[in-house]
Design a protein that fits this description.
- This protein has one domain (2-60).
- It is 49% helix and 0% strand.
- It has three helices and no strands.
- It is rod-shaped and about 65 Å long.
Length: 75
């Protein structure tokens, strides 16, 4: 046991585990946030039609796209 506590190569793996778990935690948080935004901006399933969007969820308008913008006039 003393060998594992004093060997720098074995202790260096701790940073790897923190980074590995950190990537998963940040990914799970990002997936949750993006999922909530997508849920409130999508068509509501049966039974959820009358629910309002919370004020902290941004509204995403998919009906207007950049290709619909008027073209610049050529001179």
């Amino acid at each position: 046991m003393t060998y594992l506590l004093t060997n720098p190569a074995v202790r260096g793996g701790e940073l790897y585990l923190w980074l590995f778990n950190g990537v998963y935690a940040i990914g799970a948080l990002a997936a949750g946030v993006l999922g909530v935004i997508a849920w409130y901006n999508s068509k509501r399933p049966v039974g959820w039609e009358d629910r309002d969007r919370p004020s902290f969820i941004p509204e995403i308008n998919l009906e207007s796209s950049p290709s619909d913008a008027p073209a610049a006039e050529k001179s």
